Amino acid sequence: MKIVVAIGGSILLEDYDCKKFKEYSEILKSLSYDHELFVVVGGGKPAREYINIVRNLGAGEAQCDDMGIDVTRINAKLLLTALGDSAYPKIPHNFQEAQEYSSHGKIIVMGGTEPAHSTDAVSAILAEFIQADKLINLTSVDGMYDKDPNKYDDAKLINEITAEEMLKVISNKDTKAGTYEFFDMAAIQMIKRSSLETTIANGHDPQNLIKIIKNEKIGTRIITD
Description:
Layout: E1 2-7, H1 9-12, H2 19-31, E2 36-41, H3 44-56, H4 61-83, H5 95-102, E3 108-110, H6 119-129, E4 134-139, E5 144-145, E6 157-158, E7 160-162, H7 163-170, H8 185-194, E8 198-202, H9 207-213, E9 220-223
Parallel strand pairs: 1-2, 1-4, 2-3, 4-8, 7-9
Antiparallel strand pairs: 5-6, 8-9
Helix pairs in contact: 2-4, 3-4, 6-8, 7-8
């Protein structure tokens, strides 16, 4: 299969060490023998911290976005280092480059692309652009809940939800640079129009990536039909 995997920066840099980079690199290498892989890396806490600094210096939101994009590309370079020869050695700056680099048969790793697009959106646009079979978004929670699981003990995991329902849930969320909501509205719109097979799951356990590809029922599956 042709698979796009989005990995949150908060997952890879949870403890500011190389552990998760190594764990994910080994899994991605093993999966690359049977699948064509494109990985989009998020900015996480480092991106939010830099964005706050540049915003406090008086920068506009587009400049804040640009700073965040730079951080995602640094994180992507860290994963490239962990993957070694299994990955194409350059970070694509756009979707055309990602597709071009993939002709070399290596894992493609990229970060953000342009202002106003989170890496959630980048992964969804990339999946549409390359006509991926599957989009997997690995984040810091088990999937989508009916309420914030960090605030409510009785929050229930939603196993399946339509793209249209998700759009209604997130339509009034904040869209400033560096803000974090469960998922990005632009990403859901892209998933809806392209009927992308999408799963959102907890990335703290890298083995979940393998489970999703094996069609085990974990996380939240977005239904687009």
